[in-house]
Design a protein that fits this description.
With 299 residues, this protein is an alpha/beta fold. The protein contains 10 helices and 8 strands.
């Protein structure tokens, strides 16, 4: 049975003034349950990731600031949220959820985190609504526990995974692949193992052609024994910030293609949802649900 990480802390109200579309974290599993794609048995609730594990990725001084609520005003502005204990708790739970997904993916081929994809978090700071980098934490966990030796991170969010790229810049065991808007946030890009910058207005055909060009070659080149897939739906033509012109069907085809290739090569994959900022939350939820449905159909 495919497992999905979900916990009520994902949907706890955050401090007044946040701009992140939090409702989707409640609506995604609700929609999948309503349509009969999953049952309650598919869902599991993670606990907080232990500090010891977080410190395999993040600096001790930074984690201390998150726990003790001593981020400066400038650091909070870069993150985009005012600090709060509930926010730190939420990020620790999300990180553990992605780690737990790794275990389930090793058994079932795939597992998905309703939240996660916090790829703008660096080892020593947070940015862009990201405090802790869940995929980096989970990747380092796999390496530390010798559960994987070569990891591929497939980041298809419209924003470059700058924090992830920075964390693994000198680690040849983790290959970071990012297809993202060239003129989108972050405006200072880090160097991934492979960056594929996309011009504004890139449409479905061009987007999928680039993915078909690069991903099969990377699987042959990298030979990963584990993969992470950040399946952001901010590539949609309806997205307020994405600047691309990918249709919902094109986004759905992207997900099926990624899962098809990984399954064909027997590479287990842990998936996180990443961004989505269409004005209508139903558009966001539908697109994210298509990712879950693709995994459920494929595996």
């Amino acid at each position: 049975m495919i497992k999905i990480a979900f916990d009520p802390c994902y949907i706890q109200p955050l401090p007044e003034g946040h701009r992140f579309p939090m409702r989707k974290y409640e609506l995604i599993p609700g929609q999948l349950l309503h349509e009969g794609y999953i049952t309650e048995a598919n869902l599991f609730a993670p606990v907080e990731c232990p500090a010891e594990v977080v410190l395999w990725t993040h600096e001790a001084a930074y984690l201390e600031k998150l726990v003790q609520q001593t981020l400066t005003a400038s650091e909070q502005r870069k993150i985009g949220f005012p600090q709060s204990p509930s926010l730190t708790h939420r990020e620790l739970v999300i990180a553990q959820g992605t780690i737990d997904c790794c275990y389930h993916a090793l058994e079932q081929g795939v597992a998905l985190n309703v939240a996660g994809g916090t790829h703008h978090a660096f080892a020593n700071r947070g940015e862009g609504f990201c405090l802790l980098n869940d995929m980096a934490i989970a990747a380092n966990y796999l390496l530390h526990k010798k559960m994987a030796s070569r990891i591929l991170i497939i980041d298809l969010d419209v924003h470059q995974g700058n924090g992830t790229a920075s964390i693994f810049n000198h680690d040849e065991r983790v290959f970071t692949f990012s297809m993202h808007g060239a003129h989108n946030y972050p405006f200072h890009k880090e160097q991934s193992s492979l960056d594929v910058p996309l011009t504004d207005g890139t449409d479905t055909n061009a987007y999928l052609a680039l993915l078909h060009q690069h991903l099969p070659r990377l699987l042959q080149q990298v030979q990963p024994d584990f993969a992470f897939f950040l399946s952001g739906v901010d590539i949609l033509d309806t997205d307020k910030f994405g600047k691309l012109k990918v249709t919902p069907e094109g986004c759905r085809e992207r997900d099926y293609y990624v899962f098809q290739l990984l399954k064909q090569h027997s590479i287990p994959v842990a998936v996180a949802m990443g961004g989505g900022y269409s004005p209508d939350v139903r558009t966001i939820v539908t697109a994210h649900c298509h990712t879950f449905k693709a995994a459920l159909d494929m595996y």
